[in-house]
Amino acid sequence: MSKQYSREEIYNKLAEILVDEFEISQDLVKPEANLFEDLELDSIDAVDLAVKLQFFTDKKISPENFKQIRTVDDVVNAIEELIK
């Protein structure tokens, strides 16, 4: 059984990954930030992010769901749904 995380814990972990692993300025990481336009992630970065989040949650985000993700808040919402 996977651990339950609060929305804040998910957001904080996501922000930590974006800052530490992708070298994105903490100032840019906001719920409304677009992963591709504002944070300048590319498709390879998106796959890397999905893998890192998989290690965090012990669950895999389906490629169909990941294609719908555009913002930091979308990622948090997807992880919340995944770990319910």
What coarse outline follows from CA principal-axis ratios? Answer: globular
Q: Tell me what the CATH architecture is.
A: Orthogonal Bundle
- How confident is the prediction overall: mean pLDDT? 91
What is the number of E strands? Answer: 0
- State the low-pLDDT regions, or none: none
Distance between the termini: 11 Å
Q: Tell me the quaternary state.
A: single chain
Q: Which CATH class?
A: Mainly Alpha
Q: What is the CATH superfamily? A: ACP-like
Quote the beta fraction. under 5%
Major sheet details: none
Number of domains: 1
What is the CATH topology assignment?
Non-ribosomal Peptide Synthetase Peptidyl Carrier Protein, Chain A
Relevant terms:
single chain; 84 residues; mainly alpha; Non-ribosomal Peptide Synthetase Peptidyl Carrier Protein, Chain A; 0% strand
Would you kindly provide a written description of the structure presented here, covering whatever features stand out?
This protein is mainly α. It has a single domain, classed as Orthogonal Bundle (Non-ribosomal Peptide Synthetase Peptidyl Carrier Protein, Chain A), CATH 1.10.1200.10. It has four helices and no strands. Helix 1 crosses helix 4. The longest helix is centred in the first third of the chain and has 16 residues. The protein is globular, with a radius of gyration of 12 Å.
